[in-house]
Amino acid sequence: MLLNLEAVTKNFGGFQLHPLTLSIERGEFFSLLGPSGCGKTTVLRLIGGFESPTSGRIILNGQDITSLPPHRRNIHTVFQRYALFPHLTVFENIAFPLRLKKMAASEICSRVTECLKLVEIEDLKDRRTHQISGGQAQRTALARALVAKPDLLLLDEPLSALDPELRMKMREELKTICKKVGITFLLVTHDQEEALQLSDRIAVFKAGQCLQVGTPKAIYEDPVDTFVARFIGSVNEIAGELQGEPSPETGELALASNAGNFKIKKNGHPLPRQVSVILRPEKMRLLRSKSTTQENLMEGEIQDQTYLGSRTEYSVKIGNSTFKVFEQELERLKKRRLNTGDRVFLAWRSDDAIVLPQQTV
Ligand code: ATP
Question: What's the confidence (pLDDT) of residue 361?
């Protein structure tokens, strides 16, 4: 294990980081995800040495670094605003950490050239930072952070200042670079899509507490609670009450709700009677007429539709609730066109429902 946080806490008075125990493996792309103010940056700053924990220990490569200052930890940070030196060229910005280490000029030249190649900005090496674009500044900052071959690279929302197209491109490159150089990347983001796309594992935070750590798939498909489920993607929710015991043949259980009576499957966790059933939009099928399959069916009416190019998003009103469902363009073109007010059915399989204890907040 590269990094271990052992019951790390931070008390800022108004904000408390609850005891955080976390292990990150060498070469892993790990993300801290959560809404604004949940404490992600605080965790990053504690690891970087810019804040001291109130209690707990931080172990890097088997060494207790809890009380080491930032420059004595083999950790580098790419800040949101890059923090490049305006009076230096791109080359010299990248060379800076090596010059601090008093490395030989020839070694500096070969390491910086290697990093310039890695982030594909060799031809910009003699420019000053006001002569490069935001995306190029981002690459320079990344190269400067990688040049000293840190054990761990901390990334504090590094893509947030880029326009959407460039952000998508840099996302792909970040992941490729992480795997190429074999350095562990720890990313702070509030963007769930970014975390899903980039990470080997994600830790989801809420109000100073780490709620779940897992692979993107585990967090998306098996969230520990409704907060994580809602934060990590679109959800349709049905609040209901479990009835009786699971069927011995199918393992299915009856659910009574305002939206109707359904069959669901428990995911193995103990559940109270009052549950929230979470259905991802892509797990629901939109039907123009009633089906006779064994799936769960809900009848409603089209409230709204948004054309998104490759797919159309429909809002379907069922009772007092609105459900979101997508239809791929190829599918939609084969079928009858839908208008606001049309009666439709939403079908879903008992296996595809995520069943969680009901939460009031
Ligand atoms: P964002 O996505 O908005 O950056 P975040 O999840 O990274 O949010 P943090 O920056 O870790 O959140 O802040 C968590 C809480 O700790 C906030 O309420 C913040 O005001 C508080 N906080 C952070 N640093 C300090 C500090 N040095 N002194 C006092 N309070 C602080």
Answer: 59
